[in-house]
Structures are given as C-alpha cells and as structure tokens.
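Much of what follows relies on a compact textual record of a protein's fold. Each token is a code from a learned vocabulary of local backbone shapes. The record below shows the convention in full.
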Amino acid sequence: MKPITLMLLCAALGLAQETPTEREAAAGVLQKMAALEKSIDPPGWVAKFSAANTVRDQVAARAKQLMETELLTMADDITRHPEIGFQERRSVAILIAYLKKHNFEVTTDSGGLETAFVGRFKGNNGGPNLGVILEYDALRGTKGPFHGDQHSAQGPVGMAAAIAMAEYLERTHTPGSVVVFGTPGEEMMPPEAKVEMFKAGVFNGMDIIVRSHSVSATTRPAPGFGTCCLNIDGVKYTFSGAPAHQMTPWAGRNALEAVIHLFNNIDAVRSSMRPEARVQGIIMEGGAAPNVVPDRTVADFYIRYPDAVYLTQVREFVDNAARAAALATGTKVKIDNYGQNRDGISVASLAEVGFEYMKHFGATNVQEAPGKPQGFEETGMVSIAIPGLGFASQTSTAANHTYEMEDEAVKEIGHHGFVVDAQSMAALLFDFATHPDYRAAVKREFDGIHALFGEYQEALKKVYSVPKVPDPK
C-alpha cells in the first residue's frame, strides 16, 4: 500500500464540513481538529499497516474465499428476491441460517423489530468487541421492490469479514469478540431501525463497528461531523376536509387542493431557504374518486439540510407552508415528525487505513481526495457514539437508487467491489484487534472529535440568524 501524505489529509480538513457557512462558522473547531489529526498521524498508521503481514493476508484471503465460493451467489439470490424494509423475512432467514452454520448464536426481534437480529460468535473471547452491520432491505419503487442500492450484498460482505475474523481469533486464541447486527429498513422511517436498536442498547459494548455500502466510485470520508445524505426530518402532513359531490363542491372542503397548495407554497418559499436545503415529498393519499371531494390527503416529506441547526428553520418554512395551505382551503392539517437522521462522526485513523486496503485489493474508480465527513451508518445515532467505518469501493457505474445499479449487483463490477469490501473490512478488523496502540489512537481521535461537536453546533447557531420581519403599517 502507498501511504497518503499528511498534506493531503490537511487539505481535506480545510474543506471539512459541507457548506462554506459551516466551514467559516466552525473555523476554530476545524483548527482544533487539524491539531488532533496531526497528533494522531493517520498517514503513519497507513505506513505501519502497509508492511507485509502474512497472517493478516490469510484472514483477508479467507473472506475472499467465502465470497467467491458461497456468498456472491447468496447476494445474487437476495438481489433477485427484493424485500422492502421491515418485510425482509426471506433475506433474514438466509443470512441467519448461514451465520448459524458458521458457529454464530443468533437472537431475533432485536430492539423490538421483527427483522432485526444479532449474531454472536460462539468462540468469542472478551474484548476488543468488533461489530459488523448487515443490511438487506430493498428500495420501494413504482414497479415494486428493487435493489437499486445493492443492499442485497451488504449482508454477505459483512458475514465474510466477520466469519474470517472470528475464525482467526478462535484458532489463535487471540482475545476478541465478533458480533454482527442485522439492521432492517435502512431506506425507511419510521422506525429508524438503527435508532431503535441503539436506544434499546443493542450496540452497547462495541469498540468498533464496520459496514459496507455500494457506490459508483471508491471513496472515504474526511474526519469530522456529517452524514451521507444530509440531516433529515421525516414528516407526514395529513389534511382533513369534508366530502361532497363534485357538482356541489362548495358543500365540502377539498383536502386535495390543500396538499397541492402545500407543494406550491414550498416552491414559493425556496428562494428564502439556503440553497443546500432539500425538500422532497410525495402524495401518499389523494382522494378516492373523481366525483367526490377528497376529504383526506397525506403527503410524506424528507426535509434535509447539511446540519441540524439550520434544518430547524427549514422545518419551520415547510410546517408553515402546510398550515397556510390548510387555512387557505378551509381544511385542517396534522403534522407528524415521525423520524430523523442526524450527523455522525468519521475518523481518519480508520478511514485512511480502510481506503488504502481497498486500493490494495484492487478497487476501481478511486477518488484520491477525501469526501465530506460522514458517519459509518445513515442515522448518525450509532456513529456519534461508537467509532467505525463504512467501506465504499466501486460496485457500479450507475448512480444509487437506480435500476442500473441493481442490474450491476449481479455482474462482474458488482462482484469485484463486494469482494474488495470484504477483504478490506477483514484486514482493518485484524489490525484493530491485534494492535492495542492502534485501538487507543482510534479512540483518542474519536473522543476528541466527539468533544468538539457541541462547540461546532454552538458556532452554527450564531450565524444562522433569522431576519426580523416588522409588522405592516
């Protein structure tokens, strides 16, 4: 492996956080983070783990063997039988059966979720505790469920690394434990599965958690705070009207007109929102018959912004757009904030080593510059509390959430990327388990960034002022 330079990492820190406003407001925080990264010296860890290590390579080779002999076939099968979030019963049964075959004890209904599970290797031997996230839900599409995010392979990839590492620990009597977490419904709220599992204590005790996710380019995050897909509020707006014959519509109150006004009101106010905001929704219910005034409609929105501080202003805009729509149409609206995703933490000591492993094992379309900071899972809840890494080697030439990405899950480009992820994940877990000094560095970096998070948010609050609007005269 070719070590990265400290200059490249420092350049990434200069661009850390997602918007110019965030970077300017948090300049003091970023300076402290840069000093922390210099003391941790991620390039030094990359250089250390670039040295030849036959035992580590054997663990990675075992993960590759499992993928090529059994688990790629399993991933293809799950791809061809997609199940949406919280309904992934067939996929879960396949994953659990394979874990049991490889000496894992599995408990189901984790965190009160039917298709969530936890698998613990029966030969576990104390700490460090190595966690691996498995995902398996399909996207909801107009043609039915489809694996346009290739979650169908994330379970097999994670199991390959977990089994290879667990076998090594048991065979060599090396201290350490391997735990896999089956987390359903990554693409859905509510409930946000990892949040519910986190609140139930399912992830307690983990020293590291890793996962993989399909992408069109091989990347890793810069250190800092963030999430892959912005901070999100999931909100449903339910409008209630009164039915009437469409020949006498004045005898009713039209909830469909109200929900249409909601969309129009949002469009009208977009120029008053910062340009990084994303407000996207669908009409879930729009009435039952064209000759009856619709008395109930429902719109489901994901309201997004790069940080949670300004997101509160965006929410106020959208909520007021809904209230205005109801007022204008003589209807009533119920606002249900049913779920949210928030910032997580990324650490360079894991990201840079994992990135070098992906390149070493043959990842394609490699993006040398670090991407934006983001936690290793898409809720923020887990990655704000436990250090980890999401592996992202190229598995498709297509964009996420597309039929083309689903197609490439069963082709060579998908298979190659999945094997790279499994090998890289196994190698990083090996380093973490067998080098106490590395574990200490990861923890120090994570704790240091975590300690700066509150200061970062307070800095943002000072710059996101709300204009004072006077009363009309």
